[in-house]
Amino acid sequence: MFEGTYVALVTPFKNGRVDYDTLDTLVDFQIKAKIAGIVPCGTTGESPTLSHEEHDEVIARVIHRAKGKLHVMAGTGSNSTAEAIRLTRHAEDNGADSALLVAPYYNKPTQEGLYQHYKAVAESTRLPLVVYNIPGRCGVEISPETIARLAKIKNIVAVKHATGAMDGASALRALCDIEILSGDDSMTLPLMSIGGKGVISVIANIVPKDTKALTDAALAGDYTKAEKLHRKLFPLAKNLFIATNPIPVKAAMAMLGMCSDELRLPLWPMEDSLKQKVRAALVEYGLLKA
Prior knowledge:
Order of helices and strands: EEEHEHEHEHEHHEHEHEHHHH
Strand order of the largest sheet: 1-4-5-6-7-8-9-10
CATH topology: TIM Barrel
CATH architecture: Alpha-Beta Barrel
């Protein structure tokens, strides 16, 4: 069901408010690139610092702008199961195609708690659900065995794998047939080489066509072309994670005139030395002149 490139969309801000006009422009940019789908209000979209009203409006706005042109996978995760259910129902009511649910953060639930959390959300909606496994940001890793249990639930259909390691994905492939999407841009090709179907990408905010070309080539079995694109994308991907995501990608997008680099506290802009590294990576890629 899920394959190819999905962009983990940033949420642009202007003077402390969501910049909805720029949000529309960013969605149009992705439509033009013909990627598989768009993910509003994921953690790249700074969902933890959006108000409930902003979260609902961003998802509704993106669905309205992209509906019929791109698959919309709404970010509806929370560390509160009740809140995740409300967000998911809102996304469904507004016409989302699927939902991405980050693992409950800070609470550090047990594996059984994680299973029951996702099960409760799945039972509240008809949307296809994607489990988002990112222990570095959540403080808890969803084990392959727990994901395999979740895969038996009809509408839990995929996992965004962002653990920074391949062994968990390999173990998961041995346990069940759930679709796996990379959550680490630098590991998209390695993950696809063991059966992954694509990526939910940060760098696709600025280079969606090249990211799509990589996943398309890998899906077609053309790993010579895919590796060439991987080599091209890899330095940019690493430099867009030299500080907490989405700080570097927003800095890069500001340099490219795509949106402001405004963030919500407690996120804070990078120091100039790191900005220069991001700028150098954009120049090396050919996106900016030296």
